[in-house]
Design goal:
With 75 residues, the protein is mainly alpha-helical. The protein has helices at residues 5-20, 25-51; strands spanning 54-56, 62-64. α1 crosses α2 (25-51).
Length: 75
């Protein structure tokens, strides 16, 4: 679910237009859909990176990161 360079260029184009001339309702919907796709791709990329991250302990052992518990988010 990668976002293409063309989609990123379109997001930037719509952002520039929104600042200067304003967007039509159709362009506003397009911008929202592109933003949602970009955010979903970013989150997936970050999750993959975190899933493959390990902690290297001083004794040389490796430990995978564990998700925080909802009951104890500071653990």
């Amino acid at each position: 679910m990668a976002v293409t360079n063309e989609q990123i260029a379109r997001i930037n184009e719509l952002a520039r237009k929104a600042k200067t001339a304003g967007l039509t309702p159709e362009e506003e919907r397009e911008r929202q859909a592109l933003r949602e796709a970009y955010i979903a791709a970013f989150r997936q990329s970050l999750k993959s990176q975190l899933d493959s991250t390990v902690i290297l302990r001083p004794d040389g052992t490796k430990e995978k990161l564990k998700p925080r518990s909802p009951e104890n988010p500071n653990a």
